[in-house]
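_Backbone structure tokens_
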Amino acid sequence: MKQLGAEVDIQEGYVVARAGRLRGTRIVTDMVTVTGTENLVMAAVLAEGVTVIENAAREPEVIDLCQCLNAMGAKIEGAGTSHLTIEGVKALHGAEHTVIADRIEAGSFFVAAVVTQGDILVTHCEPHHMDAVLDKLREAGATLDVGQDWVRVRMTGRPKPVSIRTAPHPGFPTDMQAQFMTMNCFAEGTSSVTETIFENRFMHVPELMRLGARIAIDGHTAVVEGVQSLTGATIMATDLRASASLVIAALAAKGTSTVDRIYHLDRGYERMEEKLRALGADIVRVQG
């Protein structure tokens, strides 16, 4: 943002930003960042002149944002590549746009079906956004039927161990790492989960171990030794995707589990417990 002409300071733990009309420039991001790319794009569309973003994120959500902004009068080229060119405009106008389906929410339900050895049909999704996840589900032994906007996942027996390594799109999404680690906790064999995107994203591991999971962490890699079953316990959500992984683990664990601090879950899942209950899960939200 500073390169675009904004004044940005950290004051007493808060980000304070000021700007007139921003000015186009060339920006090379240090790492591939989805939210960073999206914020730069939104700033650049109304900046004066041309902005070029190198090493831009290629995730479907970035493409969707660019399509929405272009429908509103922005001039963005290169969406879906690592090189974005944005010619600033003076103003945007209204438009009609349908936001793409949440591939991470869909993927979380797929994993829930695998660990509970169930049968689930997810509609109004976009399977072509989830190739890496679907391939790993097949590797785990799940039976998949895939349509244009739906996926059916069926599972019988324990999953096979599946090793994953997170990577920017089109690689395996970091936002599915915790859910797949939960799946590997039930697998027949040993797997590894390597996180390359975020630091400190194994906070769900101690909570899974409270349920009886066998996991050892070595730097950015967790080695998971699958067990026959997990046992219910009181566990605590630490972030958005960790909370989903713990709910999924609790679905398949023996006995009753309580997942605390589910406000994390509500950031990315709308009425998850209602959807799971409609699938046959014994799950309730406890107020207070």
Observations:
- The chain has a mean pLDDT of 96.
- The two ends are 41 Å apart (CA to CA).
- The chain has two domains: 7-87, 103-278.
- The longest strand covers residues 7-11.
